[in-house]
Amino acid sequence: MKTKKIELDVDFIGDQVGLTATEEKALSDFFKQRKLERKPTSANSNRRAQPDAKIHPLRP
User: Fold this and answer.
1) What are phi and psi of 34, to 5 degrees?
2) Could you give the 3-state DSSP secondary structure of residue 3?
3) C-alpha to C-alpha distance for 24 and 30, rounded to whole angstroms
4) Which of 15, 10, 53, 44 is nearest to 23 (CA)?
5) With the CA atoms of 16, 18, 23 and 24 taken in that order, what torsion angle do they form, in degrees rounded to the nearest 10?
6) pLDDT tens digit string along 14-32?
7) φ, ψ for residue 37 (rounded to 5)?
8) pLDDT at 34 over 80
9) Which residues contact 19 (CB under 8 A, 6 or more apart)?
10) Contact 58, 50 (CB under 8 A)
11) CA pair distance 2, 37, nearest whole angstrom
């Protein structure tokens, strides 16, 4: 059975009017808060401490 795909001709989602100043402020505050909630990670924090190299007992 063949699945039919419907191509939608959509240029925008939502209303055609722009955001109000209060809506822009609310979105801006939301994204700032979300960014602050993320824990700052450094490249070294994700790495595990590497144990000393193991030397094979049969090899000199």
Assistant:
1) -65, -40
2) coil
3) 10
4) 15
5) 140
6) 777 788 899 999 999 999 9
7) -70, -25
8) yes
9) 27
10) no
11) 46
Tokens at 47, concatenated: 């790495």
**Where would I find the H helices in the chain?**
21-37
Q: Could you identify the residue written with the tokens 């000199």?
A: 60
Length of the chain: 60
What is the residue type of 29? D
What the block records as the tokens of 35 is: 């960014």
Exposure letters 42-52 (e unless 16+ CB within 10 A, then b): eeeeeeeeeee
pLDDT over 70 at 59, yes or no: no
Amino acid letter at 55? I
Greatest CA span in the chain, whole angstroms?
Answer: 76
**What six digits make up the tokens of 56?**
């094979």
